[in-house]
């Protein structure tokens, strides 16, 4: 250890523990984002394969294709979760000044602040982590619910219509 650092081993352990929590939660969030994007790609491919929601584009009396309708609804749900986790509108560095900061950026910034000094985390850092962690858990719970209910329902509709099923990328269960 650097002899100029006067922080106790216990305080450094607290900093390390918070940094590990931040790393683990960021990893969990990133895996969910990757899985959401994978599922979106599968849903878009499904919709391209099946065509528009109605059997004939020009005949509004045709009943909508239930699989395509369910796919579109599922895309809306997963987009809402993704948009809370990460800023999806940012394409360039300047864009991040024009759109609100999302959980991914907030957790990264907290990690940088926590790691910026050889001290125990402050009460404010702990409080911010607790709040961000709760917000993250809310979004991850929504994602898990989509996987448990909506994807299963879509696959059931696909099975009934003899359409090949989709399978989202695996994410760790909590």
What is this entry, summarized?
The chain is mostly helical and 174 residues long.
Q: What are the defining features of this structure?
A:
174 residues; mainly alpha; 5 helices
Characterise this structure.
The chain is an all-alpha fold and 174 residues long. It has one domain (9-160). Helix content is 67%, strand content 0%. It has five helices and no strands. Helix 4 (103-114) packs antiparallel against helix 5 (123-160).
Q: How many separate helices?
A: 5
Q: Which class best fits the helix and strand makeup?
A: mainly alpha
- Low-pLDDT ranges: none
How would you characterize the largest beta sheet?
A: none
How large a portion of the residues is in β-strands, by DSSP E?
under 5%
H and E order: HHHHH
Shape: elongated
Average pLDDT works out at 89
Helicity range:
55-70%
Tell me the distance between the termini.
36 Å
What is the rounded Rg? Answer: 22 Å
Got a strand count?
0
How many structural domains in the coordinates?
1
Sequence-ordered SSE layout with sheet pairings:
Layout: H1 9-50, H2 66-85, H3 95-98, H4 103-114, H5 123-160
Helix pairs in contact: 1-2, 1-4, 1-5, 2-5, 4-5
């Amino acid at each position: 250890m650097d002899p100029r650092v006067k922080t106790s081993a216990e305080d450094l352990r607290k900093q390390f523990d918070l940094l590990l929590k931040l790393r683990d939660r960021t990893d969990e969030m990133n895996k969910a984002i990757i899985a959401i994007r994978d599922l979106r790609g599968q849903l878009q491919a499904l919709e391209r394969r099946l065509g528009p929601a109605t059997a004939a584009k020009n005949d509004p009396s045709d009943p909508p294709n239930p699989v395509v309708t369910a796919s579109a609804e599922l895309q809306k749900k997963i987009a809402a979760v993704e948009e809370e986790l990460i800023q999806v509108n940012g394409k360039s560095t300047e864009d991040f000044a024009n759109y609100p900061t999302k959980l991914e950026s907030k957790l990264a910034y907290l990690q940088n602040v926590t790691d910026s000094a050889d001290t125990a985390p402050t009460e404010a850092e702990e409080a911010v982590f607790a709040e961000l962690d709760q917000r993250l858990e809310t979004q991850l719970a929504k994602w898990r619910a989509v996987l448990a209910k909506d994807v299963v329902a879509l696959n059931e509709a696909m099975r009934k219509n003899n359409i090949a099923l989709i399978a989202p990328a695996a994410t760790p269960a909590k």
